[in-house]
């Protein structure tokens, strides 16, 4: 997911293949997390998946702010999974802030600057 976002960062236009890769990765992480009982990870990835799906359907315009939000989402997902693996806490406030940002953008309450 991260490498696809970094590849997208250098493109001038929306790349449907890269978005498809990101969407499948979020979907797989969501499903796997649910299977192993990592409910918070699954819930976070559900928000991420919905967000990427809206970008792919061109309901949300891709720009640097959106890419940065997605990269931060990948970071949060990684941290949550590592915390689950190591049986430790993660920064729940940071995860909640990113999840709220995703939901705000989805609902049109936040209009990310180009």
Walkthrough of the structure:
This protein is mainly alpha-helical and 114 residues long. 75% of the residues lie in helices and 0% in strands. It has 5 helices and no strands. Helix 1 runs antiparallel to helix 2. The longest helix is centred in the middle third of the chain and has 23 residues. The two termini are 22 Å apart. The model has no long low-confidence stretch (mean pLDDT 84).
Question: What is the topological layout?
Answer:
Elements: H1 2-9, H2 16-35, H3 39-56, H4 64-86, H5 92-107
Write out key terms for the chains shown:
114 residues; globular; mainly alpha; 5 helices; single chain
Question: From the helix content, strand content and strand pairing, which structural class follows?
Answer: mainly alpha
Uncertain segments of ≥5 residues (pLDDT<50)?
A: none
Query: Average pLDDT, to the nearest integer?
Result: 84
What is the subunit arrangement here?
single chain
Estimate the helix proportion, in percent. over 70%
Largest sheet: none
Number of strands: 0
| Structural Rg | 14 Å
Reading the helices and strands in chain order gives HHHHH
In terms of DSSP E residues, the strand content is under 5%
The shape, in one word, is globular
**Straight-line N-to-C gap:** 22 Å
* Total DSSP helices: 5
């Amino acid at each position: 997911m991260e490498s696809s976002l970094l590849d997208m960062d250098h493109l001038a236009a929306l790349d449907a293949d890269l978005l498809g890769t990101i969407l499948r990765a979020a979907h797989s992480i969501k499903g796997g997390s649910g299977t192993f009982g990592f409910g918070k990870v699954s819930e976070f990835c559900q928000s991420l998946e919905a967000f990427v799906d809206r970008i792919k359907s061109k309901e949300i315009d891709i720009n640097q702010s959106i890419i940065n939000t997605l990269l931060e989402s990948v970071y949060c997902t990684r941290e949550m999974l590592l915390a689950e693996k190591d049986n430790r806490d993660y920064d729940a406030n940071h995860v909640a802030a990113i999840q709220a940002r995703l939901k705000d953008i989805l609902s049109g309450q936040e209009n990310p600057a180009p």
